[in-house]
Amino acid sequence: MTEEEPSYAQALQKAFRALAARDRSEREIRTRLKTGKFDDATVDSVVKRLYELGYLDDVAVARRWVRNLAVERLMSDRRIGVRLSDRGLDREVIRASLEEVRREISEAAAVRKILRREIGRTPLPAGTKERQKMVRRLMGLGFPPEAVFDNIREIGNEEEDIP
Q1: 1, part of any domain
Q2: CB proximity list for 138: less than 8 A, separation 6 or greater
Q3: What is the pLDDT of residues 69-79, one digit of tens each?
Q4: What is the 3-state secondary structure (H, E, C) of the chain?
Q5: Are residues 81 and 113 in the same domain?
Q6: pLDDT tier at 6 (50, 70, 90 boundaries)?
Q7: In Å, what is the CA distance from 134 to each residue of 80, 110, 140, 144?
Q8: Residues 52 and 89 grouped into a single domain
Q9: Which pLDDT band holds residue 152 (cuts at 50, 70, 90)?
Q10: How far apart are CA 43 and CA 29, in angstroms?
């Protein structure tokens, strides 16, 4: 397939539109083009051209997505890993990006922020059922048990210290 053929130009335009909307992984672009009925050779040519132009970079995409999900949306490593794997990013790239971002905010710090946001200015629920509900919710979000229990214990201890 050459660049002059209409299907190549159409595929390239479709890829540009997809990338203009948001960052996408190589696999997402390939999938989008294949569902657009472009043949494998055209898809390969377009992907190659996007790399040449600097529009595709799975490592940079992983860093941006991990940062957004971990810092802004306070997601657990497990959920971030699943979400980005589903988008076609390499597990090693995801792991390296998580390692980099977790220097900024750990999972334990994310749990603490979520707890602070949820309980606000009210005290931590005293009842066992309420605390269990909070633990289930945080663990359901994919946070490790030790981060959840340590933070609930720590917040409970802080409240006991208040005269």
Answers
A1: no
A2: 111, 114, 115, 148
A3: 999 999 999 99
A4: CCCCCHHHHHHHHHHHHHHHHCCCCHHHHHHHHHHCCCCHHHHHHHHHHHHHHCCCCHHHHHHHHHHHHHHHCCCCHHHHHHHHHHCCCCHHHHHHHHHHHCCCCCHHHHHHHHHHHHHCCCCCCCCHHHHHHHHHHHHHCCCCHHHHHHHHHHHHHHHHHCC
A5: no
A6: low
A7: 21, 14, 10, 13
A8: no
A9: confident
A10: 9
Whether 137 and 94 share a structural domain: no
When divided into structural domains, the chain yields a total of: 3
Residue-number span of the structural domain to which 27 is assigned: 6-56
pLDDT confidence bin for 11, thresholds 50/70/90: very high
